Amino acid sequence: MHLRIIASLLSIILLSSAGLPEKGPLPQKKPTIPQTAEPAEKMEKKVKEAPLPLKDDKQVETPSDAKPSTEKPETEPEPVLTIAPEDGKEYAACIVALKEIGATFKEEKRIDDGKGCGIDKPLTLQTVLPGIAVKPEGTMRCETALELARWTKEAVLPAAKVALENEGPLTTINQASSYICRLRNNAKTGKISEHARGNAIDIASFTFKSGKSIEIQPRDEDSTLTGAFQRAVTATGCLYFETVLDPGSDEAHENHLHFDVIERKGGYRYCR
User: Fold this and answer.
1) What pTM value is reported for the model?
2) How many whole angstroms separate alpha carbon 171 and alpha carbon 226?
C-alpha cells in the first residue's frame, strides 16, 4: 500500500517537471469558402451605375451615349438626262405624211442644249396647212408638227366654219412657245418641260382673213360662238395630243392652250 502511494507521488513529480516541446505542428488555416458569382442582372446593373472613365479630367462617352455623327452621307449623283434617239423609219414616214397634208417646214440639225434639252431630229414648221401660217415659225419634232396639222385640218377648220364663218378662212395659228430649254411652267425646280424635248407647242390665238383674232382666255362661261369655238378646239385637241391644258387647268395656262405628245403607259391622256 505504501509502495503504491510512493509510486504515484513520483509519477506526479516527473510529469510536472516535464515541459511542452519547443516546436510542434502549427494549426491549419481555416479553409476559405468560395463565393458564388453574382447574378447577371445584378452585375449588369453595377456596370451601368459605374462611373464613366475619365480622360484628361473629362468624362469619356461610351458608345451607347455617343452623339450621332453630323457628317452628311454622300449623295448619289443626279441621273444624266439625255436626248432620246428617234427611229429613222418612223421619222421618214412622219416627214412623208407631213408633206402630204400640205405643211411646209425645214429639217434642222440635231439640237443638244445639255441637261436633257434637245431634239434628235428637229424641224422648223412654217405653215401647218396650205395658206395657214405658224407665227412665229416653231421648232419641234415631226410628230408634234404632224398632230398639229391633223388637228387644224380635222377639228379647227370645221369648228371655225360653223362658229366664225363671217370672219373668212383661218390664216394664222399664233404660237406662244415651241422648243425651249426649260422646266415645266418655267419653274426653278422640278421636271423638265416637254417643250425642252420638242414634244410640245402652245397656241396663243387664231387669226382669220378678216383680221379678227380669237385669243385663248378663260371662256367656260362664255355663251357666244367665240366661246363655243374655243371650247370645241380644246376638247378635240385630246383626240390628237396626249396632253391638253387650257385656261381652266391652272394659272400658268390662262392665256394659251398647251399641247404635247408625251407617251404615257397604257395610252393614258391628260386633258383639262
Assistant:
1) 0.70
2) 17
